[in-house]
Amino acid sequence: MRVKLVYLGLVRNRLGKQEEEIELKEGAFLSKLLNKLTEIYGEALKTLLGSDTESRLDPSIVITVNGISRTTDLRLHDGDRIAIMTLISGG
User: Fold this and answer.
1) 52 or 6, higher pLDDT
2) What single string gives the DSSP state of each residue in 21-70?
3) What's CA 38's distance to the chain center, in Å?
4) How far apart, in whole angstroms, are the C-alpha atoms of residue 3 and residue 65?
5) DSSP secondary structure code for residue 3 in this structure
6) Amino acid 7: pLDDT
7) What angle do CA 72, 70, 52 make, to 5 degrees?
8) Rounded to 10 degrees, what is the CA torsion of 30, 58, 64, 85?
9) Average pLDDT score over residue span 19-48
10) I need a surface site. Which of 4, 32, 62, 88 has the fewest CB within 10 A?
11) Angle at 26 between CA 21 and CA 29, to 5 degrees
12) Contact (Cβ atoms closer than 8 angstroms) between residue 64 and residue 83
């Protein structure tokens, strides 16, 4: 199956791209996608997401699937649109 990724904020800066499509095994969980991305992008992404993409992400990271905020235990489907972004803060 193929999913579309959209990178926003600091994630976009670190990866140097706005979006891409990734091929996954049918029925893969969001955690597997994150593991695949850290294999592809290495430390640039791993330090941003946090050390354990199987169960815990850095609290400043937000991931939406088809526009709805999700946790890493979500099963993905062909054609899903995943946005990975950092929280906006400031005063």
Assistant:
1) 6
2) EEE--TT-BHHHHHHHHHHHHTHHHHHHH-S-TTT---TTEEEEETTEE-
3) 9
4) 10
5) E
6) 96
7) 25
8) -120
9) 93
10) 88
11) 80
12) yes
Q: Is the Cβ–Cβ distance between 83 and 3 less than 8 Å?
A: no
63-85: pLDDT as tens digits: 999 999 998 899 999 999 999 99
Tokens of 21: 């499509």
Phi and psi angles of residue 54, each rounded to the nearest 5 degrees, phi first: -70, -40
Number of neighbours of residue 80 by Cβ within 10 angstroms: 19
Could you tell me which CATH number the domain at 2-86 has?
3.10.20.30
Q: Which residues of 25-52 are buried (b: 16+ CB within 10 A; e: fewer)?
A: eeebbbbbbbbebbeebeeebbebbeee
Please state, in angstroms and rounded to a whole number, the distance separating the CA atoms of residues 59 and 66: 20
